[in-house]
Structures are given as structure tokens and as C-alpha cells.
């Protein structure tokens, strides 16, 4: 699929908000239906996931404490009729160890987010046999 450049947004999520919910709310409020996301900051008690093919489910890894959001990368598409942020993160602890995976949730201490909107045919996530919700577009 081909897209053209849309708007760019740079914003901060308020302390105490849940990261993914805040991104989804922002996208809905500003009618961002397709886009890319990157972010840095700090999350408290984040939950990340690793998709296990055998079970067709995410293994949830619960991290306790405060973690540096070294990098968050992802995209926005449509799921169940609303903008949906799919984000992977790299999280660092106070010892410099790094944890990574699919972001399930995380309370914001600090989060600076960049969204680049893309314009074109909507990407719609649909449930697949493997347990994931994926786009139809393949190339």
C-alpha cells in the first residue's frame, strides 16, 4: 500500500495516565487513522508481552518499579472501528538491563510522543487464525 504524508504531532502524556490508552485517545480526538509512533520517557510497573505461537496468546511479563522508556516504536491502524496503537518497547532498569516486547500497559511518569499521520486507504486489523489481529495488506 502507498501512503502520503499527513500531519505530525509531538505531545507529552500527563503523569499517571496509562500510555496506550492516552495514545489511542489522542489518535481518536485528532482523527489519526493511520500513522507511525515513536516515544521516549519513563513508565511505572509496565506490562510487556511476548506472543507465543503455540498457544496463540501473549505471555505477559509484569515489571515492577520504574523503567526508562528507551524506545517505543509502533503504528496506528483501525481495530474494531477505532484508532488502535500497536507499540513495541525497549525498557531499561536502574542497573542498565534492557527488557523488550509488545507494550500491554504502563503508567506514565514521563512520556514524549511523536505521531506521524499517513494518508491513504485505511489499514484495518482483523482477527486471524493464529490469534493475532492483522492487516490484510501484504507486500
Question: Short summary of the structure?
Answer:
The chain is mainly β.
Structural class: mainly beta
Task: Please state roughly what percent of the residues sit in beta strands, choosing from under 5%, 5-15%, 15-25%, 25-35%, 35-45% or over 45%.
Answer: over 45%
The H-and-E topology, N to C, reads as: EHEEEEEEE
Q: Could you describe the largest sheet, including whether it forms a barrel? A: 6 strands, antiparallel
Helix content: under 10%
Strand segment tally: 8
Mean pLDDT over all positions: 94
What would your notes on this structure say?
- It is a single chain.
- With 139 residues, the chain is mainly β.
- It is built from one helix and eight strands; from the N terminus they run βαβββββββ.
- Strands 1, 2, 3, 4, 5 and 6 form a six-stranded antiparallel sheet that branches. Strands 7-8 form a two-stranded antiparallel ribbon.
- Strand 4 (66-79) and strand 5 (82-92) form a beta hairpin.
- The longest helix has 11 residues, at 19-29.
- It is globular and about 45 Å long.
- The protein starts with a strand and ends in a 5-residue tail after the last strand.
- The model has no long low-confidence stretch (mean pLDDT 94).
Amino acid at each position: 500500500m502507498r501512503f502520503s504524508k499527513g500531519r505530525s504531532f509531538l505531545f507529552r502524556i500527563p503523569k499517571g495516565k496509562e500510555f496506550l490508552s492516552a495514545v489511542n485517545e489522542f489518535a481518536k480526538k485528532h482523527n489519526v487513522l493511520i500513522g507511525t509512533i515513536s516515544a521516549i520517557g519513563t513508565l511505572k510497573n509496565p506490562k510487556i508481552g511476548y506472543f507465543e505461537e503455540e498457544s496463540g496468546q501473549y505471555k505477559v511479563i509484569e515489571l515492577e518499579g520504574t523503567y526508562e522508556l528507551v524506545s517505543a516504536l509502533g503504528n496506528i491502524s483501525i481495530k474494531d472501528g477505532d484508532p488502535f496503537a500497536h507499540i513495541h518497547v525497549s525498557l531499561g532498569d536502574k542497573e542498565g538491563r534492557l527488557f523488550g516486547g509488545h507494550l500491554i500497559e504502563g503508567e506514565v511518569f514521563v512520556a514524549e510522543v511523536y505521531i506521524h499521520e499517513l494518508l491513504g486507504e485505511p489499514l484495518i486489523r482483523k482477527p486471524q487464525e493464529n490469534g493475532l489481529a492483522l492487516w490484510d495488506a501484504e507486500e
